[in-house]
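ARCHIVE CARD
Drawer: 12
Card no.: 0347
Subject: one protein chain, sequence and derived structure
Cross-reference: see card 0346
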Amino acid sequence: MYNRTETLQRSSEHRKKMEKKNKGIFAIVLLVLVEVFLASGDVDIHPSINPAVAGGTITLSLSPPTALNSGSWAVGGSLILTWLGEQQAVFPSYSGRASVNISTGALTLSPVIVADSGAYVVQSSDPQLRANTSISVLAPISNVTLTMNQTSLMEFSSSAVATCSVSSGSSPLFLWLNSTSDLTVGSRVLLTNGNSTLNIINVTRFDQGPFTCYVSNPVSNGTSNPVNFTILYGPDTMALTVKGQNTTCFSVGSNVTLLCSAQSNPPAQLQWAFRGQPVNTTGPLLNLYNITENQTGPYTCLAFNNFTNMNSNITTQITIANSSGSEPQAASLGLLSLLLLAGLLFSLSDAAGPFSPWIMNIS
């Protein structure tokens, strides 16, 4: 009876010792696995710059730095180089451009080209390691140029086209400026071909610019020289005033200067008429010296644009008071305006000059 009890007690103690030993072995194995994972699995690749500029240098570093006794670098499935100890073998397409630092595992490429863009992988069996990253290499923007389809455009009937181009540059983004503000796109103003072409439909005088094209990518940018469209318009929006005066009534013996203006590009040719008859004066000013009563009447300024073949006119009534202070009887301005047109029709229809087409059009 005593022997049986002693045997059971010894068996229980042996079992406990075995369980304790197994737990210790499991803990050691688990610790080794954790250390292996931390040593080989938790490794990242950090590019020195991304995206990189074509022609520059890029280094792909391991974090943490790891001494690799052997291994390889590849991009897109194509080997760049391999090494064993101190010996490196660089593949022909990377000859003179690629090297590895076996103390840190870092790959250096110099100079980089656009074709170097891709997914990079480093592998090693001593120690066991694999990591990857992606980089892009971009060509810098150069020689931004802005060209136009034509230089002279007719208002309301012509359309403008300007094209922005670069000599080189990867993934260019195009931005247009009108003077110093961003171009506003609308029903008449369109950007096409990846925003590289500006289209303005039925141009107006407010579309002349200057326009500038700004091109950029993540590594560089460039700006074109400003260009202007020449918009032909007018004459219109005419004004006829008495220079330095706010009245159209004057005393006999006064000096009067009439000033005529019109919105026009190129500037309109201006001709003066009095009571329907042309006077021997052209240009924006009509000077009347030592005026008399018989100079009372309608004065008309005629404007003509040779390029648009358009004309316009404006009339004002000038009244000259006699010495007694009374005013002479003036004809109706509307009637005198009709007389003006009739007078011009008969007196100028045979004359050469820019106003002949206008007169023929009225008749």
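Annotation on reverse: DSSP finds three helices and 28 strands in the chain. The domain at 44-138 is CATH 2.60.40.10 (Immunoglobulin-like).
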